[in-house]
Amino acid sequence: MWVQLSAFIGVSIVVICTPGPDTALTVRNAFSGGRRGGIWTAAGVAIGQAIWTVATSLGIAGLIHASEPAFLVMKFAGAAYLVYLGLQSLRAAWRGSGPDAAGGPLLHLTPGRSLRQGLINDLANPKMAAFFMSLLPQFAPGGDFVTMMLLGLLFSLITFAWLTCYTVAINKARTLFNRSRVRRAMDAVTGTVLIAFGVRLALSQR
């Protein structure tokens, strides 16, 4: 049991530490909204993963993945959302989003908005269905519902902890990031990365 759990945690850490759309969004919101923006985004991502865990355990994720129309709708909706968030960042970079820029921050990240963005970003990615379908059953003998639920929730907690560490690290360098030129450069970088992830998702196969 403990060996299996250790193996699951090891695989989870490798996957979670590999940067993806959720990481890019959390970093972008930590730059723009500080520690609070990043942590609430991370919470939204973790909640999204918990929902995918329930969907996988109940077999719903399998139905979504097996349905070509549902998969395509989610894929293009998720890609469009990533591009939309990326364009927001590029717009902020173009106009200036630092505290010393005219008009103040353009992204206006509240806790609710950060949470919602993290949640939607994770749920709108159909690749998450395939990922949880391939990961959880490997460590749940016979596809045990309770085991898959517990493992999926553990994965979500590890994700939240990792993204929170990202956020805290960024927050400790707030003095540098609050300079207008640096903030605009980071907005441009994160915006470009989000758009790139969106395009990759749109062009991806099952």
TrEMBL record:
Membrane topology recorded in Swiss-Prot or TrEMBL: Multi-pass membrane protein
Highest taxon listed in the record's lineage: Bacteria
Source organism: Nonomuraea diastatica
Chief location of this protein within or outside the cell: membrane
Any matching Pfam family: LysE
Statement: the UniProt record of this protein carries the keyword Nucleotidyltransferase: no
Keyword flag Membrane: yes
Name of the protein described by the UniProt record: LysE family translocator
Subcellular location: Cell membrane
Transmembrane regions: 6-27, 39-64, 70-87, 146-165
GO cellular component, one term: plasma membrane
Keyword tags: Cell membrane, Membrane, Transmembrane, Transmembrane helix
One Gene Ontology molecular-function label: amino acid transmembrane transporter activity
Organism ancestry: Bacteria, Bacillati, Actinomycetota, Actinomycetes, Streptosporangiales
